[in-house]
Write a structure and sequence with these properties.
111 residues; 54% helix; mainly alpha
């Protein structure tokens, strides 16, 4: 086995896929606090992959990867994806979405 240690959170089926391919690897299960930190790191990694794609054709795949991490973060915070979606819809109802493409570039200070 190589000295390379990726030390990154991977999807649940990756160890099985590595085993099937005959590759040697080691894993361990993270505790809750460590899991949250690795999820945050994964969110950053996936965001960078989306912002700086190696292939412009896979934007939707990268968004799906981001969404998968968001689902995991939701569960890590004790909420289902349905609860997260409810909060998103409530905020959208109150504040709107981003579909109008409105850029706020100046605002006067209150006097």
């Amino acid at each position: 086995m190589s000295d390379y240690k990726p030390m990154k959170l991977v999807r649940d089926n990756i160890p099985q896929m590595l085993e099937t391919s005959g590759r040697a690897f080691r894993t361990r299960t993270l505790g809750p606090a460590e899991y949250n930190q690795y999820l945050k790191n994964k969110l950053k990694e996936e965001m960078q992959d989306y912002l700086h794609p190696k292939d412009s054709r896979n934007a939707l795949t990268k968004l799906a990867d981001l969404l998968e991490v968001i689902h995991a973060l939701s569960y890590a915070h004790g909420a289902s994806i349905e609860e997260l979606e409810h909060i998103r819809q409530h905020r959208r109802k109150e504040h709107g979405g981003f579909m109008n493409r409105t850029l706020l570039y100046e605002i006067d200070e209150k006097e």
